[in-house]
């Protein structure tokens, strides 16, 4: 029996890499997508292929370029000859105050967070349909409650949340489409000044771990056969009494 295959975008490091490791440990072959983190991607693929030969494959693409996204989809199908799971994890995140937001910001934030996931879902739907597969989008708690000075990012993630629900209707019954909405898991590498306030706003009074997101992705992919069109908040209860950052 052929092992199922997952494509995880933005998976060379951080949460994406943890998702890849978790899916691989569940017996899946994995396609690791990266844009610039070649060293980390190669190290991750080597690590996984040492555990199970020919179980991890690397693909590079700039998700800001629609043609590159379509090429990524074609290369993903060619890698192992099938696709069972698409995890749209790659994301750009940085502030865009309304008085300084530019066309380039639109390109970087809307393309990576919304347009690329749509193109990948569109391009890979036939392959996923053949395997009765699924799509899992990594959304954000800020898709519902805005983060100050991050309007473009919040808009893009809100669009991704609606895309999740809309594609679940359109691609069913053959493809399930769900989302995972992380709360405070890993702080942005550029820093976030109100970390204590964000942590205090969660019901559990702590940050989560990348494994919390990866476990939710694995559950939706493996065990949630009657779940589609849902966005699972993995946020420690932050969304219960949300205070924008």
Automatic annotation (TrEMBL):
Alphabetical UniProt keywords: Oxidoreductase
Pfam families: adh_short_C2 (PF13561)
GO molecular function annotation: pteridine reductase activity
Annotated coiled-coil segments of the chain: none
Database matches in SUPFAM superfamilies: NAD(P)-binding Rossmann-fold domains
EC number: 1.5.1.33
Ranges annotated as spanning the membrane: none
Family the UniProt entry places it in: Belongs to the short-chain dehydrogenases/reductases (SDR) family.
Protein name: Pteridine reductase
Organism: Alcanivorax sediminis
